Write a sequence for this structure.
């Protein structure tokens, strides 16, 4: 009887997920495996929801955003008997291996299940936030940065025509990768991120400097995880209320808070654009499709050769494998050198 590999996608949806599903499925079928979708992330294993994947199901997926097998932020470790159900359903379905495609939360669960229960799982690093360690980049990030860059380009038009300060709030959770990269690509005049929190006073000074040098508009990119930071040392976070099963607070709202500080302190008309889930939606860039495809092929190879507890990763131009434990140990934050590239153009 053919061996069976399951595939699940967990956490926020992300451009390129379907390209990974296609690559894992195509390569696994070619090497004699049967492929089964686990519906909606870890929830599918807790509830025993599966669906066969064949060549036909994965046709036409490269340009498609989202995930055809559904996703959720279910954490089996936070549910009564959740882990036992995962193990039972895995066995009951007759699975021999699992490919978990996700970010720090989904892969954190995979790492624990491998470590504590020897679940035969391999990982694929997904997230628009690009905050996973042990890989140079995650798929989905390039698309998010492209979307934000295009938005910044478009906002320049209004900023310039109306002499306004335009604040653009982008995602990224506790890291500022999206803000820094789109800020560099779009020519932001100030970029605010959680790792290197410049103050509200410094931000206003940079904008005023621009204005006194003859530029009547400014583009400020702020990462959702930035907290209003003042010269006095005080920091103020915006509380949106709500928390997910992994203990993450719902973020958002910093753009508005920052804009009223800027307008109040400088007197310049200031408007806000929150890009929100637009950053995760729609078709992946060709770069993300290619990366997702290479990750998917690597994951299928790890499964076929029985190298469990590993994750596909990009190092330089090469696809390698690293341990899930290493990949989920700590977040990959924006180093000062990258922030310096963005800040070279402030003011
Ligand atoms: O991790 C991806 C991400 O888009 C973060 O940037 C953001 O904070 C979060 O997910 C939003 O999650 P949700 O879609 O559950 O609101």
């Amino acid at each position: 009887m053919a061996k069976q590999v399951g595939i699940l996608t967990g956490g926020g949806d992300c451009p390129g997920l379907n390209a990974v599903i296609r690559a894992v499925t195509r390569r696994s079928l070619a090497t004699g495996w049967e492929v089964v979708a686990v519906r909606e992330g870890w929830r599918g294993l807790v509830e025993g929801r599966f669906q066969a994947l064949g060549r036909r199901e994965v046709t036409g997926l490269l340009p498609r955003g989202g995930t055809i097998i559904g996703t959720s932020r279910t954490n089996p470790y936070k549910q009564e008997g959740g882990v036992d159900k995962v193990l039972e359903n895995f066995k009951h379905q007759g699975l021999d291996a699992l490919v978990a495609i996700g970010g720090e939360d989904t892969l954190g669960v995979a790492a624990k299940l491998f470590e504590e229960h020897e679940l035969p799982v391999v990982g694929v690093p997904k997230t628009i936030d690009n905050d996973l360690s042990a890989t140079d980049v995650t798929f989905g990030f390039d698309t998010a940065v492209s979307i934000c860059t295009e938005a910044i380009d478009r906002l320049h038009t209004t900023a310039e025509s109306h002499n306004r300060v335009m604040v653009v709030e982008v995602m990224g959770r506790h890291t500022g990768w999206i803000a820094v990269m789109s800020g560099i690509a779009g020519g932001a005049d100030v970029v605010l991120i959680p790792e290197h929190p410049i103050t509200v006073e410094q931000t206003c000074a940079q904008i005023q400097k621009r204005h006194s040098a003859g530029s009547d508009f400014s583009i400020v990119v702020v990462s959702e995880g930035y907290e209003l930071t003042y010269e006095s040392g005080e920091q103020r976070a915006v509380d949106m209320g709500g928390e997910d099963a992994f203990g993450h607070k719902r973020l958002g709202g910093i753009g508005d808070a920052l804009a009223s500080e800027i307008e109040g302190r400088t007197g310049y008309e200031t408007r806000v654009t929150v890009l929100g889930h637009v950053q995760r939606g729609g078709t992946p860039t060709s770069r993300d499709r290619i990366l997702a495809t290479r990750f998917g092929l690597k994951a299928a190879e790890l499964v076929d050769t029985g190298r469990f507890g590993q994750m596909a990763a990009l190092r330089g131009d090469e696809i390698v494998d690293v341990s899930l434990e290493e990949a989920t140990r700590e977040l990959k934050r924006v180093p000062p050198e990258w922030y310096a590239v963005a800040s070279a153009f402030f003011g």
Q: What stands out?
A: The longest helix spans residues 141-162.
